[in-house]
C-alpha cells in the first residue's frame, strides 16, 4: 500500500522530548482514509535514542509505522536530507523533537498539499509554549524563536517582502526537494558552539527560485516548547548573531547572478547605514535593554555577513587540499 504522508522527526539527544511529540501523533484524528508513517532521524545522539524508538516500534507495530534511521553527520540540514531520502510518501512534514502538533495536524497538512498542487512547501502556525513566560519587551523579537503567527488565513510567501518560514512544522514535496535542494547545503544548522542559522531559509530559497509556491497554512497548528534558557541573554544574543551572519548568503540565493555584484554593494551600504542609525538612537539603552542588545547584534552580524561568509568558504576550500 502506498504511503500518503510522512512525518519526519530529526532529533539529537531527544529521549526526554520525543515522548510528548509521539503521544500527540498517536492521537491524530480524521485519518481513516490516509495511510501515513513516522520516521525518526537520529542525528548522532548519545542518549539511547535508538533503544527508545525500538520500544515505541514494538508498542505501535499494529497501529502505525514508525521507522528509525541514523544520520552520523551532525547538523539539522543533514538530518532533514536523510528524511527526504527515506520517506515513502510525496508529502513530508517536518516536526522538531520539541514541536507538539495539534490533533488534526497530519490531516490538515495532507489536505492542504492535495488542494495546493503548486505548493512546493508550506508552513504551520506555530505558538510558543514557554517554560517561563517572556516579558512584554521580549515579545517584539520572540518570532526569531521559530514562532510563526501570521493570522487565521492562508498566505503566499513573497521572500523579498515577508521572509521565509521556519523549518519546524514545515511540509515539503519530496520530489521538489530532491530536484532543487542540494544534497549539501552551505548552511547546515547549529552544530556544536556554532549558532550560524539559516539552513531552512536556504532550502526554501532553492524551492522558491525553481518556481514553486511557498505557503503559510494556519490550520496546521503546533506548539513549540521553549525552555527558560532560550529567552535568556546568552542564547538570544548568540541566536541573533547566527541569523545576521547567514543573511548575505540567503539574500544572494534570491537574486539572479547578474544582480549579485551590484546588490551586494547596495546591501552593504544600506546595512551599514541602519547599523549606525540604530547605534545613534539606542546607544544609551544597550547596557540594560536586552531587545536593544539583540537588535544591535543582529544588525552588526548582518553588516559583516559577506566578509564572515567569505572567510568560512575560504576555510572550507582549504580543507579540501
**How far is it from the N-terminal to the C-terminal residue, by CA?**
48 Å
Average predicted local confidence, pLDDT: 93
Report the C-alpha radius of gyration, rounded: 20 Å
Number of domains: 2
User: Shape from CA axes?
Assistant: globular
Order of helices and strands: EHEHEHEEHEEHEHHEHHHH
Helix segment tally? 11
Low-confidence stretches: none
**Which CATH top level class of the largest domain fits?**
Alpha Beta
Q: What percent strand?
A: 15-25%
Fourth-tier CATH superfamily name of the largest domain: Spore Coat Polysaccharide Biosynthesis Protein SpsA, Chain A
Shape-level CATH architecture of the largest domain? Alpha-Beta Complex
Portion of residues within helices: 40-55%
Number of strands: 9
Structural class: alpha/beta
